[in-house]
Amino acid sequence: MRNKKLTPLLLVSSSLLCFQTFSQDLISPPDTTVTTGTTVVAAPSGPEIHGNFQTDAQYYNPDSAIGAPAVPEKMLMNGFANINYTYGNFSAGIRYESYLNALQGFDSRYKGTGIPYRYANYKLDELEVTIGNYYEQFGSGLIFRSYEERGLGYDNAMDGFRIKYKPYRGIYFKGFVGKQRSYFSQGPGIVRGFDGEMNIMETFFDSVKKTQVIIGGSFVSKYQSDQDPVYVLPENVGSYAGRLNIIHGGFNFGGEYAYKINDPSADNNYIYKNGEALFITSSYATKGFSIAVNAVRTDNMSYRSDRTANISNLLINYIPSISKPHTYGLMAFYPYASQPTGQVSLASEVQYKFQKGSPIGGKYGMEILLNVSGANALDTIQFQPVLDSAREGYSSNYFGVGERKYFRDVNIEITKKFNKKLKATMVLASQLYNKSVIQKPGYPIVLSKIGVLDVTYKIRPDKAIRIEVQGLLTTIDDSELDSLTKTEPHQDASDWGYVLAEYSHGEHWFVAALDQYNFGNDETYESIHYPTITVGYVKSATRITLSYGKQRSGIFCVGGVCRTVPASNGIALSITSSF
Amino acid sequence: MLKKFLLSVCALTILVSASLQTPVRKIPAADIKTLDGKSFNTSKISNNGKPIIISFWATWCKPCKKELDAIADEYADWKKETGVKLIAISIDDSKSSAKVPAEVKAKGWEYEVYLDVNQDFKRAMNVNNVPYTCIVNGKGEIVWQHNSYNEGDEDKLYEAVKKIAKGQKVEHK
């Protein structure tokens, strides 16, 4: 071994491990006795090391019939591993990530290997301090949300300091300063913020109240120096948000309003208009019935710690999208992605459970879920650049709704258990998807009608077979397009079929065979099958899946943030576990 | 020669120490919220020395809801026989967390449901994907875990709960 650094490193780590293993009897660990009203749970915690990891590898065959590109590396692999150490009130950890090279559909700027996440954390009863990397959210995230979504390749972790302080019952403060993660490095901007929240009933009253009122306010500011030769850009951009939550029995109301001062960036074409966002949630529920109405309005609320960043890089805030996240493949074919630059959206959901023994419910009951959601452009007046000396760009009517439709989804889902062995779910939906707005300009509006039937049959108590049949019928609306910019890709011009058969055996194994069929458009495109077979093994915290076949290109979304995945033909292996 | 010897001793020490680590895990501390909007720290999770089931789920996770619906049918019996308590942690973010109280009430679930909106508890527990379910024994140690959900898994879960309630050891299934 020539590496001179390895020997001392090994010596240090082995002595630390020795010390830790054998010291548990010698050192009395910090007493983290927890006293609740009626119980004392003594939890003397010794040091612990835990972690989790995931690796995804795919081997790609070029396939021109489905548009699967040739991949020069042939095999691509993403992997990460978290290792966390905790001892009483102290914790520390790292995450190692590798992209050798990143899978298709992931941002190719993730390249190579490194340790992009490392932290140390100390917690006392009222105070918690984190140094290094951390994730944090203020309210609903309208002005600040730092989070990870590994499946999307989304990670805007902060690197700096974060302090949480609880001075009194029901009152919480949070403060942070840091730079954001950008691939294996950091963005240029510095972000800092402060949040306060008070649970009014908890603070002022001793007993538990039926009504809960929670108020909160936050302030976030970013600094990025101005290097622009043309514009005088604001170096500090601040944003404010206030929120209120009222809960009374089955009623639940939440509202958050955010305001951002002028923030010219590549996202808004360098205009000096301020930004606003409003997020309202409301619901009422009793046993067997619930109704919810949610609304989001955003106006120029793209907030990044680098003005020139794009796609999912260096976002400071998070604008939730209120469309229903579908899990059935063809239902999620055209998913809505949040439009922070401007949107007005409304969603409503009604859930009803026919109880067991009722005439419609039958022996086991039946559930119905009706969901309606939609989004439109803002009602704006664009300013003529010649007359717009302040470079405001546009003005928007606060209570107006623009004419341009972005998205519609009306769907009904019915679930019923027929007997001990058989249960089924049926979903019907009608959707509208403005591809020019949600993806990129030049595409038509896609109107789709989708149906799903999902039946599970229990052969034995722990052996079941599940069959899913889905259909998607599309029509194109190109009325918005200039005839010169019309594009009608194969995907949108034809109908789709989907059949899945999944067999689960005990608690460890499953096998699934899937075929997605593009009916083609007789004149221009052939019909194509996309068959895939998957085998999976699950034990304790470990899950291993192996798939072989053809995948259509598609969009994979979590929480309104999406990534596009190109078509592929080959083998994919995924291993996840934790210890 | 000495260098090689030292290196082998180090390597051996690491392996021995690692295998001697008792893989016992206590519930890590993280801040989550009740459906009432109150802040709650997970280090305070307890059930008077009886077992606790912690299940991570989301409104968009179909197998998670199937699992919790299947357990809901038997929950009253499970509680009576073993005193077990099920804590359901929703990892829905602000896009769908507002729907959680309504959905739970309409379904009639009697579990203790909490919101982990920025996935702090999921991260501290080293959970990769949902569904993820684990059982905590009377001493606050996580002694059984399982990810994914196949039909009939709730029966295997209950067999493990019964053994843990009696203080017996279980295999990590």
Summary, kept brief:
Helices cover 5% and strands 54% of the residues of chain A. Chain A is mostly beta strands.
Detailed description of the structure:
The complex is a heterodimer of chains A (about 575) and B (about 170). Chain A is mostly beta strands. Helices cover about 5% and strands about 55% of the residues of chain A. Chain A has helices spanning about 5-25, 200-205, 435-440, 490-495, and strands spanning about 35, 40, 50-60, 75-85, 90-100, 110-125, 125-135, 135, 145, 150, 155, 160-170, 170-180, 185-200, 210-225, 235-250, 250-260, 275-285, 290-300, 340-355, 365-375, 380, 395, 405-415, 420-435, 445-460, 465-475, 495-505, 510-520, 530-540, 540-550, 555-560, 560-565, 570-579. In chain A, the strands form six sheets. Chain A has a 24-stranded antiparallel barrel. A two-stranded antiparallel sheet of chain A has the order 1-2. A two-stranded antiparallel ribbon of chain A has the order 8-9. Chain A is globular and about 60 Å long. The relative contact order of chain A is 0.10. The model of chain A is unreliable at about 15-45 (pLDDT under 50). Chain B is α+β, with helices and mostly antiparallel strands and about 170 residues long. Chain B is about 40% helix and about 20% strand. Chain B has five helices and eight strands, in the order H-E-E-E-E-H-E-H-E-H-E-E-H. In chain B, helix 2 packs parallel to helix 5. The termini of chain B are far apart. Chains A and B meet through helix 1, strand 3, strand 4, strand 8 and strand 18 of A and helix 1, strand 1, helix 3, helix 4 and strand 8 of B.
